[in-house]
Batch of 2 targets.
Target 1
Amino acid sequence: MKPVAAAPGGRGRMALCAVVALLLAVLVQTRIEGNRRSSGVHPILYLPSGKYLRVMALGFDGLLADVLYLWSIQYYSNYDIRDRYNYLEQIYDQVITELDPHYLDPYLVGALIMTSEARQPEMALRLLDKGVARNPDQWIVAFEAGFLCYNDLHDYKRAAGYFEKALRVPGVHPLVRRLYAEMYNRAGDKRTSLKEWSEIYETSTDDYVRNVAWNHVHDLKVDVDVAELSDALARFRAREGRPPRVLQEIVAAGVLGSLPRDPEERDYLYDESSGEVRYRGSLVLGR
Amino acid sequence: MLARINAIALNTFREAIRHRILYLLLIFAVVMISFAQILSLLTVGSEEKVIKDFGLASIDLFGVLTAVFIGIGLVSREIERRTVYTLLTKPLHRFEFVLGKFAGLAITLLVNTGVMTLWFFLVLLIKGMLDGALVIAILLLFFQFLLITALAVLFSCLSTPILASVLTLALYVVGHLLWSLDLLAARLTSASGRALCRALYFVLPNLGNFDIKGEVVHGVAIGGSRVGWASLYLVLYGSAVLWTACAIFERKELQ
């Protein structure tokens, strides 16, 4: 059998056909994309749980978590997808952090999106709780949970609980200790806050931190002392049926063990007519 | 004996580096490692993790593919081309031929892994993310390649290249899923089923022993004992596979 000679210009025609076929394929693909968008089936519905993906990953679970995390960042940057927040928990809690439980960014960024954009702080706290449980050696996750409770929920007791967890981790940032102390103040437990701030003041070697701590200790001591004296005055009034003429009377009557002195080692001012106790200086932080 | 094995190994190495597939896989690996840099631009935080994950995964994936696609033809191609007859007419034992083939591919993989590692470390150096612990992860990946090579050589002695590649890849998949057998055993109520699961768990090659990518990327300290036990496992399991391959090749009728 004789070899067939190549047709003149055959290669060019084939190349042209290839280009035309490719263009047609691109057109078909755009049509498929259009159909997919109008079908109403969300692409995330095809995403299996991280538990199953982990089995399929064959040791590449870290890589798969990276790819899905990168995709999620792009996905949540697209404000055209209206129902994107419906799948937040599935993506971050059930897929990415299941694939790589020690990958911290999905906990932190996932919680940020849940709080700031989706306005679902409780969902964010569930994700961060999982992060704390899976990464007990990482203070940042508990810190983020505490900060969320402080900044968004204004639930200072809960925030203090998270900051306390973060404080148990070696190498925790010193700021956490200050926030922990401050949470008790915000929650109204000034005595505990004073104790914590005093410890910070006594143990810190950083001049700036000591200065900040001293300001808090100063104002909190005034608050605690004034509250203690006011309470003692009320008890005295209830027992004696009159206000004391001078503060020393409440000590003499056994209502209070001793009179506290202000941070500058001076006595507190007492006004018999109004029955109120005042600090003779001015508060440093002025709260 | 060692001289003869060396001679076969060097010839196998020379033959392997002429394989176009080797360069194709190497180029893919280098591109994928470099691509991680671009991908890391899309992330929020964790740039270092993305680059390290991609680098280690590329070395893992392309090393395994090299071991499988070159390993499966090592013996069967020699039989197919009938070059094995010329070799075996020389004062050469059949087991020396098999061991030489394995050693040749091991050298190829060493060079291959070395090139990928150098490129990966260059990328990390430029980004200021160089981490000595990655060497341990890559060393264990290389151990995994050696075990897969041994399996590929075994199946290459047993069957055709296509079947050998399917069997080797199947064992690669199974080797990374053995932990699920352990979970299954814990859930089974039948004692014989549990015993079967446990037996399979210990008999099949456990490639999870060589996978510390996640730990290294997350900065978890890797104890020397972990590497030591994995090395011992490779030596023992690899020897078992290679001696089986030698025994099969010894009994193989070459016509």
Target 2
Amino acid sequence: MTQEHDHDHEHHQPQPQPEVALRTEALEALLAERGLVSSNAIDAVVELYENDVGPQNGARVVAHAWADPAYRTRLLGNGTPAVYELGFSGFELNTLVAVENTPAVHNVVVCTLCSCYPWPLLGLPPSWYKSPPYRARAVAEPRAVLREFGLELDSNVEIRVWDSTAEVRYLVVPERPAGTDGWPEEELARLVTRDSMVGTGRALEPSELAGR
Amino acid sequence: MDGVHDMGGMHGFGAVVTPGSDEAYHERWEPRVFALSTLVGIERLGQGSGRAIREEMEPAHYLAASYYERWLWSIERRLERKGTIAPGDVDRWVERLSAGEAAPPHADAAQAARAVETIGRTDELGPARETRFAVGSRVRVLRMRPAGHTRCPRYVRGAEGVVEALRGTDRFPDIGPYEGPPEPVYSVAFASDDLFGASEEGRWRVLLDLFESYLEAA
């Protein structure tokens, strides 16, 4: 990112919100006082999404699809039962559609109306996914958006932008990097980034694994 | 409703990738708001859809608020509409905490276990039965200006596309959010120039999941 860009974007930096933090605490206190929501239930939900639910789950699905052609077919045919085979289910998975990136087709996922995202596979979405610029621009200028993520696609690649407007959630299966033949699934999964499963990135190359 | 939340195609919001944009949240209260919203749903303490209620925020407020600040606003409205809390209740606790009072302890291990178990449940669309359109049909999105919640974005209204797949059946969201009769949901593909005109980016496709009531034969 250039100096000029850094300057332009300064006003987008997240600012601390002490008043909203206090109001959240007040709502927790109110619901605790009435015996309606317990602090350990709040802690349990927070910890669930911090420790157990995240892109490591989607990465396992993608790695399994790369390694097992029959599983890949099941995943692309009917996503929800296919990910359940690996133990993944839950809120906001809904009807899961897996779409595959190839040298000819690049899929990318957005929710222009809110922030629909396959939580059980990818965790809670990054801030950019929920932000007005992504929601506004992904459908109308996808190449410019992908370029911000460092993804420059050849002009002959067909881009398919999926706007999650109903209770259907999308998982992008990125292209498997070259030089990974015979790799065990655990190693393959390390190549699968969150952004590669939204379509704003590619899977890592083997050479990019060092230092991660 | 045709509010500022319906952002597809808008200009002026700037860059997507900015400092901090890669993180899911930045402060500890944010995941706690997420958890509160989830628990209000699981414990049936609120009324209405948080997603639909957030669209009722006054436009300038919606745009100025941070993401989980909008969620907090919608949780309070859900609780008020159910009668679980009254307007002013949260403000009084803000004052009590500010005056140094500690939040009352309330532990409930069963509630925590119930939440984790419920979060693990998937709610798939129902099977599709009688449908007006087949895969390959050309369809046009109706012109409309719905006053309430809708899942039909402005940028596709009036445009023609092709049905690529049938996703299943779901409650029509526009009649009392998510309480309408079940109807088919289609994956419809649009050519970019049918939505946005000619672009220096060339052509691409945009695909949306649209309810049957949004569509007519083209």
